[in-house]
Write a structure and sequence with these properties.
Chain lengths: 73, 482
């Protein structure tokens, strides 16, 4: 892929370094978020399946339950 | 008709105004990139929302016909493989040195919005200056189509961040913290203020406040510690993980957006003139008569473009906009222009408010004075109607402009209608301004005023405002339309 390098503006000195420092910290945050998401995913897999059989009654919204009842009638 | 000087800083192409058309000459290397960008969701959506200038490529025949014109800038001829694009014309170009802080803030918001939206389509914004933006009424429009380039997906750095800070955040900060007018910043500095300059303004404790630390102090300290010969910092540091690079950039844009929002200008309650509508010297019948007079003149002449000179909080600009005119409202007070901008946005009125002192209008700026034309060069002959309400005594007394000169300027600005309020020297406000120099205007009365109008205007009608020494005039330009 061709990338044009036509940036002609002054990137500054201190501001560019400061952006790079913040980027390094935010990069760490990226891995933390990713790890958290992975852990949450594992938990969801472990507990999500067990809860499934008892879940349907509570998960059906009230409106849909009413509609289903009226359809039966 | 001579063309205005082209923009030239971007090696990808340049833009110029030619015979009323806005043309952009694009270098061969950038043509396909621009076309691809114009096909992205981001560009399409923003063009549809009128926040990005609509753009089309001229076909070969159109471009060839255009190139036959000897007046076209040479750069349009010397672009093998290049192409010509045409943009829609924004009615009245205005520049950051004429904007109230509210408009600079809105321009900054649009810049960040677009930078984020383009990211989703794999493009990056390569410059972040308020000169990329013009205003259509009170709404910002991004005009520099060449500001977008395909980004390297592994690049976590946004090079124009420093420019965004210099040209949006620091001017807004300096304006808010020290009351530094934007005109003072942008008339002398095209590229905004450096953190080092702002650092010098800060007191010893202020340098450690969180916002100052991040925007001013740390960049200034880092800049001091870095050798000017160190080129390593400018080398791109690409990441193998493109998802991470995008996460870093999105987080940067969110951080800049939060900072920009924290600098959003607040309405100033008392700037000297911003409370004029509540404290002016008219009683209700006089004000109602003035309002009726202006409305009738607007109904009769139906001006498509109106200049409200000395607009104050924009009451009469709003009347003109409601009557269907495109209005440019100028006032020397930035708080007044800011109030007009808020009102125009809330009520969706077609008003472009600018901070311009008619007695000391914005000069031509930039390279060879050709990048930002002077206010009067843009305004002369542009308007079908001019309102000069409660203004003449400020020009006569405070600025010492002769009456004949004021009328001549009005003649040059309007094609047709001039609504002007004449104020006799015995008026309270007039006397307040003279400060003991009453003799200078002792001979000024309605007869003298009407005589001064004669070379330029026909008097359509006039009306004395009840209970005041003021008289409204509806004047028709001699040799004008309607």
């Amino acid at each position: 892929m061709t990338i044009l390098i036509l940036a002609y503006i002054d990137p500054g000195v201190g501001a560019l370094l400061w952006q790079a420092i913040i980027a390094a910290f935010v990069g760490l945050l990226f891995y933390l978020k990713k790890t958290r998401r992975w852990i949450m995913g594992v938990f969801r897999k472990m507990f999500g399946r067990r809860q499934k059989p008892s879940a349907p009654v509570a998960e059906i919204p009230a409106k849909e339950t009413m509609k289903a009842k009226s359809d039966v009638r | 008709m001579p063309q205005s000087a082209p923009s030239f800083r971007d090696p990808a192409g340049c833009c110029c105004s030619f015979n009323g058309r806005v043309l952009r000459c694009v270098a061969a290397v950038a043509v396909s990139e621009l076309e691809k960008f114009l096909q992205t969701n981001c560009a399409r959506q923003y063009i549809a929302r009128k926040k990005f200038v609509s753009t089309r490529r001229l076909n070969e025949n159109e471009a060839a016909t255009l190139r036959e014109s000897p007046e076209l800038p040479p750069v349009f001829h010397a672009q093998p493989g290049g192409a010509v694009f045409e943009h829609e014309r924004i009615p009245f170009p205005s520049y950051p040195h004429e904007w109230p802080p509210e408009m600079l803030w809105a321009a900054g918001r649009l810049t960040l919005e677009l930078a984020q939206a383009a990211l989703g389509d794999g493009f990056g914004l390569k410059d972040a200056t308020p000169h990329n933006i013009l205003f259509r009424g009170s709404e910002p429009v991004f005009i520099d189509a060449l500001s977008f380039e395909r980004r390297n997906p592994g690049d976590p750095i946004w090079l124009p961040e420093a420019q965004f800070v210099r040209t949006f955040l620091l001017p807004l900060l300096a304006n808010r913290r020290w009351g530094l007018p934007l005109a003072e910043i942008f008339t002398t500095r095209r590229d905004g203020i450096e953190p080092e300059e702002v650092y010098r303004f800060c007191g010893p404790l202020e340098k450690f406040k969180p916002r100052m630390l991040s925007l001013v102090s740390i960049p200034a300290w880092l800049s001091r510690k870095t050798s000017p010969d160190d080129q390593k910092i400018y080398q791109p540091h690409l990441l193998a993980n493109t998802e991470k690079a995008r996460f870093i950039l999105e987080s940067l844009f969110q951080r800049l957006e939060r900072t920009l929002d924290s600098l959003k200008p607040v309405a100033q309650k008392n700037s000297g003139w911003s409370d004029y509508m509540a404290t002016h010297s008219y009683d209700d019948p006089a004000f109602a008569a003035k309002e009726k007079f202006v409305s009738e003149a607007l109904r009769e002449f139906k001006p498509a473009r109106v200049l409200d000179a000395g607009a104050n909080t924009g009451h009469f600009s709003a009347l003109a906009a409601q009557a269907g005119a495109e209005v440019v409202a100028v006032d020397l007070d930035a708080a007044c222009a800011g109030a007009i901008w808020r009102r125009a946005r809330e009520q969706k009125l077609n008003i472009l408010p600018l901070v311009v002192n008619l007695a000391h209008p914005s000069p031509a700026l930039g390279w060879r004075n050709g990048e930002c034309p002077a206010f009067l060069d843009r305004a002369t002959g542009t308007f079908d109607g001019v309102l000069m309400l409660a203004l003449i005594h400020h020009l006569l007394v405070t600025e010492r402009i002769p009456l004949e000169e004021i009328l001549r300027l009005a003649y040059e600005l309007t094609h047709s209608l001039l609504v002007i309020e004449f104020i006799e020297p015995r008026d309270d406000m007039f006397r307040r301004l003279t400060r003991g120099r009453e003799e200078l205007h002792a001979t000024l009365d309605t007869t003298m005023f009407e005589q001064a109008c004669t070379p330029y205007f026909e008097i359509v009608r006039s009306l004395a405002l009840p209970g005041t020494p003021r008289r409204m005039y509806c004047l028709k330009r001699k040799g004008g339309g309607n």
